[in-house]
Amino acid sequence: MTDMSNDRIPLAALEHGTPFADRHVGPMPAELARMLDVVGVGSLEELGQHAVPDGIRERDLQMTLPEPATEAEALDELHDLAQRCRPHAEMIGLGYYPTITPPVIRRNVIENPAWYTAYTPYQPEISQGRLEALLNFQTMVADLTGVPVSNSSMLDESTAASEGMTLVRRAGRAKSPRFVVDTDTLPQTISVLRTRAEPLGIEVVMADLSEGVDGLPEGEFFGALLAYPGASGSLRDHEAVIAEIHRRGAMAVVAADLLALTLLRAPGEIGADVVVGTTQRFGVPMGFGGPHAGYMAVRQGLERQLPGRLVGVSVDADGDQAYRLALQTREQHIRREKATSNICTAQVLLAVVASMYAVYHGPEGLRAIAARTHRMAAVLAAQFRHAGIEVVHEDFFDTVVTRVPGRADEVIAAAKRAGINLRRVDADHVGISCDETTSRDRLALVWQAFGLDTADLADVDDLDARTPDALPKALRRTSEYLTHPVFHQHRSETSLLRYLRRLSDSDVALDRSMIPLGSCTMKLNATAEMEPITWPAFAELHPFAPAEDAEGLLQVVSDLEGWLAEITGYDAVSLQPNAGSQGEFAGLLAIRAYHHDRGESEREVCLIPASAHGTNAASAVMAGLRVVVVRCDDSGNIEMDHLRELVEKHRDDLAAIMITYPSTHGVYEDTVQDVCGLVHDAGGQVYVDGANLNALIGLARMGKFGSDVSHLNLHKTFCIPHGGGGPGVGPIGVRGHLSPFLPNHPLQPQAGPETGVGPISAAPWGSASILPISWAYVRMMGSDGLRRATLTAVAAANYVARRLDEYFPVLYTGSGGFVAHECILDLRSITKDSGVSVEDVAKRLCDYGLHAPTMSFPVAGTLMVEPTESENLAELDRFCDAMIAIRAEIDKVAAGQWPADDNPLVHAPHTAASLVGEWDHAYGRQEAAYPMGTSMAKVWPPVRRIDGARGDRNLVCSCPPLSAYEE
C-alpha cells in the first residue's frame, strides 16, 4: 500500500472542490490531448492561433468577470438574490396571473431533462413525445377558441397579436394601411403593435369599441383587434362589431383569455378570423414576465398563412399514425425576405406545461377553476357595491375596476402593506384581478385596503348566494370542448406520471444522446443552472409589480447585461428580446432609428450574404428594410468584389449589412474586418448575428472588430435549454451610438431608454425567470472557463471533421484547413453515386441511437455537425464510428450488395415492431436494429419513417376525432 501521508495538497487548493468548468467541458485532459493530436496541433492555444484570423483575435484577452464560483457558491449567491425579491399576492392582472403548477407537471416536465434538453422536432421519428404534447396544445387552443387551426405556440400574447395584425394584412384584400385596435386592449400589446406597425407602414387606429359598431372609425381598414375580455375587465359581445368589420371587407383578430373561454362563447362562434392570447395561467408561473406560451388560432382558409410551427398528423411507412411538423415550418430559412414571419423558435416547453395542465384537469376541472375565479370577482364586486363603492363595469370575468375619486394611491399603498399588489388605473380608479389562487382571506384584505371595516361587510356566503354571475347571458358558453380522450384519461397523478414518461421515452434529448445539430449549439444545461428557475421568489413575480419587489432578479439582469457587454465588447445590452428572431428585429430597429435620428431616413438597404440564416432576411423586411443579397464564393465566403460593387451602388441608401460570424458555413472568414470597413465607409451599420458566438468567447469580440450590434442566443451559447424548440432568449448588444435606440417598455421605465424604439416583447425584461440560468453559467465558468469552452468546442468540431473527412468530405474550411465550431459534411456526390440521400443517413442514425445533425442547411444535400464542448471523447467517437459504419453501408448499396430500394438506410428507422414476424429484406434483423452490435446504446424509434408530403396534403393539426380510433 502506497504511503500518501507526505503528499499533502494545500488547503487552498482543496477548499473549493472540482471547478465547474471541469464538469461542463466534456473531454478530460488525456482525451483532449488525443483529439488535438488528430487535429494536428499541440494545444488549445495553438488551435486558436491557427483557426482564428490574426486581425480579430485578441491576444491574452482578459474579460473582466468575477472569479469562477463553485456550483454551491453560485446557488448560495442566487439564493441571497432571491431573498431580495418580495413577491406579493399579485392581483394586477393585465395578462399575467398567479397559477398553480401541479407538482407532477413541475417535477416531470419543467425540471425533467428529458423534456427541457430536447430540440425542435426536425427528426420527428424520435420526437413523437413532444409532438403529441404539442398536438394536445393545438387541440386545447382550437377547442377553446372555436376556430379549427392553432399553431404550437407563439412567443407571448403581444407578439401573437402583432403576428395576427400582419397575417390579416397579407391574407386580406383591403388596400388600406389602417389597423383598428380596441382601446381596452392590454397596454403592452398596444405598444408592441405600434413598434411592429411603424416600419411596415401600418397605421394603428385606436377605437373605443365599448360603443359597439358606432365605435368603428370611418373609412377603410384591413383589420381590427378586439379584446375579450378587455384590459379593464369589461366583457362585451363583439358579434355585431365583427359582422360590421367583415361587411367592410376587413378581418377580425380577437385577443382572448383562454381560461375565460371555458365559460364564454368561443371567439370563433362570434365570427373571429384570428384568435390570439397567452396560456400563462394554465400552470405556467408568471416569472416576472416569461417565458410563457402565447397562442394563435385561425379560421379555415387561413392555415397556410399561420406563422410559427404547426404539428400535423400523417402516417409512417407501415401506415401507422405519426406526428410531424407540417407546412412551412422552417419557411423563414427557405423563403427568406418573402417569409410570412421571422419567428424561428416557439415556446415549446411552456406549451407542454399548459397542455398537460389541461390534460390533468380536463374540461370539468378547467371550468371549475374558471368558475371559482369568476365567483371570487363577482363576490368582490358585490361587497364593494354593498359598501357604496362604485364598480365601473357590470359585466366581467375576473377583473373588477372600482372608482375611488382621488384615493387610488392610498388604496394601492394600503393593499401593498397587506401583501397585495393591485393595479393603479389612474388617480381615481383601482383594478383588482382574481385568479385560481384567490381566497376569501385575500378578498378580506382587499376590502380592508379600501377602508371597509367589519361593519361595512356583508357575510360572504350570504353575499355569494345573492350575487348572480357577471357574465352576460348572450356570452355564456354552450358548446363542448376538450372532448378528445386524452383530456379525460389522466386525472390521477399515477396516470399522468406514466403518460409523461411514455411520451418522453418516445423522444431523443440530451439525456440520451449528443445532439450534433449545426447552428443550434446543444450543450450541457447543468442542473445547478436550472435549479433556481422554479424558486417562488423568482417564479411568482408579476412583471408590472413595483420594481422594488424584484430587486434580486433585477440584480441578475444588471449583472448579466454587464457580463454580456464585457464578453462581446459592446457598450450596452438589452435582455428584452425573448427569442433570437426578436433580437434580430430589435437590433435592426435600432439601426433604422439611428439613421432616422440623423436625418438619413433614405437608408433602407440591408445587405445579406447568400449564406446567412434565413431569419436575417425576414427580420430585415419586418424592420422596414429592403434586402439585397451578396454572393458567396466557392469556399462559402462573402464574395468581396460583389460586396464592393453593391456598397458603391447603394452608398446613399445603405442602412446595414447582416453577417454571421463565424459564418453559417462554420468558417472564420478572414475578411470580416474588411467587410465592416467597407460598410462603415459608406455610412452603413454592421449587424453580426450572434448565433455562432460559442466559437468566439475569449478569443475575439464583435464589438471590437467592427460590429455595431448583435443578438446573442442565450439558449445556445449561454446554456438556457432549448426545451423542444423554446424557450429562447435573444438579447442584443450595441455600441454606444445605438444604445439610445434599445427597446423600452411603457409599464417599466427601468427596462430601457426613454428614446428607445418601443417594446418588442410583452414583458419589460422578456423571459426574465430563466435569466438565472445564464447568470449561473457565466458566474461558475469565469473568464478562463468560458475561453476554454470556446476552444474545446472548436477542437471537437475539428476532431469530427478530421475523422470523417475521408468518408464524408468537409465542404468548407478556413485558413490551414480548420473549421470553427461546426463543420459541413458533403453527401451530394455520395447521393449521386449510391442514391442514398442525406435524409436516409439522418434516419439511419436513429437506429444507431443517435440524433442526426442538421440536414440540408445551409447547403442542400449536406449535414452540418456541431458537437459543442460538453461532449466527451467517447460520445464524439460514438458519433464518428456510427457515421463511418453508415458510409460502409452506403458503399454496399453503391456496389450492388444491397438493392437500392431494400437496404437498412432507405428503410430506416426500424421500430421494434418492424422486426417481429415475417422478414423479407436483403439485410438481417440485427443489421437493422443493432448495427454496432447488441452492446450499443439502443433507442427504439416509436414510428418508422413518416410520410411528410401526405401530411402536408391532408393537414390534420389537432387530435384526431373519436371516429379515427373506432376505425
UniProtKB/TrEMBL annotation:
Keyword Protease: no
Catalysed reaction equations from the record: N(6)-[(R)-lipoyl]-L-lysyl-[glycine-cleavage complex H protein] + glycine + H(+) = N(6)-[(R)-S(8)-aminomethyldihydrolipoyl]-L-lysyl-[glycine-cleavage complex H protein] + CO2
N6-(pyridoxal phosphate)lysine: residues bearing it: 716
One Gene Ontology cellular component annotation held by this UniProt entry: glycine cleavage complex
Alphabetical UniProt keywords: Oxidoreductase, Pyridoxal phosphate
EC number in record: 1.4.4.2
Domain Glycine cleavage system P-protein N-terminal positions: 22-450, 460-739
SUPFAM superfamilies linked to this entry: PLP-dependent transferases (SSF53383)
Residues covered by the Glycine dehydrogenase C-terminal domain: 789-910
Keyword Oxidoreductase in record: yes
GO BP terms, alphabetized: glycine decarboxylation via glycine cleavage system
Cofactor: pyridoxal 5'-phosphate
Enzyme class per UniProt: oxidoreductase
Residue ranges crossing the lipid bilayer per the database entry: none
One of the record's GO molecular function terms: glycine dehydrogenase (decarboxylating) activity
UniProt similarity note: Belongs to the GcvP family.
Stated role: The glycine cleavage system catalyzes the degradation of glycine. The P protein binds the alpha-amino group of glycine through its pyridoxal phosphate cofactor; CO(2) is released and the remaining methylamine moiety is then transferred to the lipoamide cofactor of the H protein.
HAMAP family: GcvP (MF_00711)
Oligomeric form and interacting partners: The glycine cleavage system is composed of four proteins: P, T, L and H.
PANTHER family, A to Z: GLYCINE DEHYDROGENASE (DECARBOXYLATING), MITOCHONDRIAL, GLYCINE DEHYDROGENASE, DECARBOXYLATING
Name of this chain's protein: Glycine dehydrogenase (decarboxylating)
The species this protein was found in: Halopolyspora algeriensis
GN (gene name): gcvP
